[in-house]
Amino acid sequence: MIKKIEILAPAGSSESLKAAVNAGCDAVYIGGNKFGARAYANNLSEEELLEAIDYVHIHGKSLYLTVNTVLKNPELENELYEYIKKYYEQGLDAVIVQDLGVLHFIHKNFPDLPIHASTQMTLTTAEGVKAFEGMGVTRLVTSRELSSDEIQEIREHTNLEIESFVHGALCYCYSGQCYMSSMLGGRSGNRGRCAQTCRMPYRVFEKGKSVRGEEDKYILSPKDIMTLSLIPDLIGAGIDSFKIEGRMKRPEYTALVTSIYRKYVDLYLDMGRDKYLDYTKKHQKELDEDIKKLMDLYNRGGFSSGYYKTHNGKNMMSMQRPNHSGVLVGEISQVKGNRAEIILKEEVNSQDLLDIRMNEESIYEFTLKNGAMKGDKIETNFKSTAPVKKGYAVYRTKNDRLLNELKEKYLDHDVKQGICGKFIAKIGEKMELSLTHQDIEIKVKSDIVEEAKNQPTKREKIENQLNKMNTTSFYFAHLDIILDENIFIPAVKINELRREAVSALTNQILSKYRRVLSKKNNETESNDGDSIASSHTLTQSGQEKCSNNKSKIVVHLNNRIQLEEVLQRREVDVIYYGTNDTLLKDILPIARKVNEVGKQFYLVLPHIFRKETYERYLSNIEILRDPLIQGYVIKNLEEYTFVTEVVEHQRFQKEIILDYNIHTMNNSAKEFWIEKAVNHFTSSIELNYKELKELGCEDSDLIVYGHLPLMVSAQCVLKNTKGCIKVKNKIQSIDDIEKTDELIALSNEVELVDRKNKSFFAMNVCNYCYNLIYNGQPISLLSNKSEIDRLTPYSIRLDFTFETRKQVKDTLDEFIRVFAYNHPMEDDVKDYTRGHFKRGIE
């Protein structure tokens, strides 16, 4: 028997929640008024959310609350407990979590509350979830970049439920790894305030020359995904929950997408794979019509099937238009003055919104007064300033009839729950009404039934009164009425009995979900602040020796040319070396050179550690265990498991350092890692000076210089604009590096320029087949020496990427002058940003 597949619908408002339930979802995910990843949705108030929890439970559904942002220390320590407590007691089914500090806190204070690991955690293998085993996590939400084969691999190695996105918007960046919106405007995606910078236009240059046509402006804008054709493969891969994106969309969108996926998933579950494939083949027209409805409601340049069967590519992108494309319905056949004739390729309706376009650029938009059939010709006036021409396409961006049908079917009426009833009225006894819903049965009694003195109460009247259930969530699927003859019952008494019975049934259903926090949990909460503070104090004391001296100077780089310059600097204590442009087999000679000059060598692991990368590192395990490598800088949970369980870092005396990609924005997150014997962090790049001071930096590296990566993407800017060139590392072939002074990273040859003329550099990390998009402005805290001294970070860190050897030399000269010798600053970095050190984020 095929297992049940959950249809998980988005609910950005109360209306969307009801639409999802009426359309047949099994569960909804929704945000409250805090801590959700869609801060600009019509999120529910506390009272509305409490009512929503009851509403879904009465209808036999589940509600998952999004707490899927990174929390600052005061938020977690002062607000999170009371925020969760009310919903926990009401019967909240699960929380969706990104921040490991939030996960740690919720599990400690609400140990029986299921936790879903958000896609914002960037989980790409089953190894990643081992980091939080035994901490209440019941489900992982996979990264959207995974193939169905990779998901099947996860299924074979974990007992957790697997949830994956099947429809809706797709981020360009791996979720949880995007800082673009944050750095450009202070609206952090990790805080639920993404400004959709991937939907903005960019010009692309390679070596200063444009590499694409003017019409392809939106090079970072993916199409929405639609996976109806992949249902058999996704179920076969072991996905338990089909997740629909769209908390910012209208309720009609939620209703349509939910109902269509409900329809086809149920067909598959009823028929099995072979019969389902045969059915969809024979009913291709029906499937096409359903897809057209989805297109009518929202699409960006059509749909893609996401990454399930494709690693990346231009066919997944909507480069000409970043928003709703609509459906092609006609073409301009004639233009006279400011009047255009349109020949229709599809039926259109009164109040449809049509858009005349040149390529994908909107020229003129108008609302139809009257509908017309396919093949008809219609006319419209347009503004004289609109350059409408014969041959231009006409798209429909609002299908008024479809919206009205969805509203009438799913929004105007609630789907009711069928119950069984039994009404007994015998003279001289109390009348009785029993209601049964699934395994719950209630029975209520009322006044004693009297014999009729005049006109007896008829069965039909009693039945009519009992069936007045319009204001309830129920209807009688079956109703038995047992009566003595010649009885009299006032209608008001029947109504009172019905209302009392329905209320009792409702309370009985909801009582199954109610929780009361145990005394033990309350004690945990009351001491929570002390617990976190205590563990953090231990961390600081463990670093005391370093904190009392000057901060160490750490340099992070990826290539040998820059390394040659850094090796000469005795003031640099530690080298963090990445493998963007270096193969693992070449690491030990580099590490030996670093060790020989008395510096420590730490290997920086990749941004993403998918199965293929895991296997590559596994095949080089002896290199990774070599004593020339003092430790590892890790960027994701997969790498933590790999280093602890495979490399066996403790056995081989290797230190683990968390990069800023593993968010430690609060003490609870640090406590999570301290309990795993990891106590060396990298300060968040999204906290300002005051927040860093309050959190403490004595156990952390602080990045004081570098071009920061703003996006990590499975897509490739160069491939999507010019074609895949599978860049090989030029540096490996250079024999006389002393004479080389060129821009190191090949990626620097690909430049993105936004509408405000800000530059970004796209790095092709072909070693691991992902893209990094860097801020064109480096961060520099050179002029903030006094504040950094007050922070007393364990290390200050300089990140070098695109810099020439001379630029590395000049930058190091100045930072060493200021930070190692306390000399006044002579020459600051050109065209720099302080990042969030001063301004911070919301």
Automatic annotation (TrEMBL):
Stretch list, region Disordered: 521-545
Residue span, Peptidase U32 collagenase domain: 394-509
InterPro entries on file: Pept_U32_collagenase, Peptidase_U32, RNA/ubiquinone_mod_enzymes
Pfam families attached to this UniProt entry: DUF3656 (PF12392), Peptidase_U32 (PF01136)
Biased composition, class Polar residues, residue ranges: 532-545
Protein name: Peptidase U32
